[in-house]
Design a protein that fits this description.
The chain has 289 residues and is an alpha/beta fold. The chain contains six helices and 16 strands. The strands form four sheets. Strands 3, 4, 5, 6, 7, 10, 12, 13, 14 and 15 form a ten-stranded mixed sheet that branches. It has a two-stranded antiparallel ribbon with strand order 1-2. Strands 8-11 form a two-stranded parallel sheet. Helix 1 runs antiparallel to helix 2. The termini are far apart.
Amino acid sequence: MAIILNGTMSNLIFNKILEEKIEFFKYSFKETSRNIFYSEKLNRLIHPGEFGTHREQICKDFLRSIIPMRLDIGSGFIITDKGDVSTQIDLIIYDRNNTPLIENSERQKFYTVETITGIVEVKSDLSKNDLKSALNKLARNKRLKENMSNPVKIKRDNEGMFDAMNYPYDNIFSILICNKLNFNIDNISADIDDLYDDDIQPWQKHNLILSLEDGLLAYYDDNKKSIMYPYLNVKLKNRFIRPDKNINSHFYFASSYIFMGTTSSSIYYPEITDYINDSFNGGLNYDQQ
C-alpha cells in the first residue's frame, strides 16, 4: 500500500531520523568508546591509539549522513603541487569523482588539495592549550588550498577566480569535534580569537567547533543571523550556541551548517602534470620524420 507523505510528515520523518543519528553518535562517542578502551581498574585508557581511531570512525559515520553523497570521507594527508604536505588529518572530506587515489606501501593516503571540501579534527576533552594547538593545526592545514598553482574550477557556484579571502566557499570547510572543553568557557566567544597565532588570517580560522557536552562555536553577521563562516568581506564575530530546552540544539545547527558548508565548497581540477613536474625530464624523444 502506497503512503502519501505531505510536507509536515516528511519534515517529521527527517527530524526523527536525524535525532536518532544524533543520539547514537553521542552515545557511541562518549560511552561506547570509553567502555571499550578505558580500564576502571587502571584508571586510564588501555589502547589510546585504537580509542582515537574508534572515535574518528564514529564521527565519520555521523558525517556521512549529513554530507552530499557525491562526497566521501577518508583520513591521511593533504598535498599540493608545490610540494606542501599537511600534518596528518583525522577526517578529510573530498570529491570522490575527481580525487586520484594516492597511497603508499604503508597504506597512507594523500589527497590533492584541489578536491578537498572539508577537514575535521576529532578530540576528547580539551584544555585551553590543547584547543589552541588543535585550532592552529586546523588553520594551517586549511590554508594549503591557497597554495594551488593553477586553479581551474570544476565546481564553483559563482563566476570568478579563486579567492580565499573574499569568497568563503573557496576555502576548505574546517571543523573541530570534541567531547568537552575542559576549562572555563563563560567568555569563550570573546576569548577564542586570542588562541590563534599571529600568522593565521581571519578567513583561515575554524568554521565550526562542536563540543558534545558544551555547545557549538560559530559566528553571526550584522543581522544577528548565525553563520558558519569567519569572514565575509569583514571579520565576523563569534557566537557560542549552548543547548537549553532542546539538549541537541547544537547538533542540529552543526548538521545543517556542515551540509551547507560542504555542499557549497568549490572544487578545482587537480592537474597531475603539475604534481609530476620535473619527473618528465630525463627521457629521450624519438620522433617520426
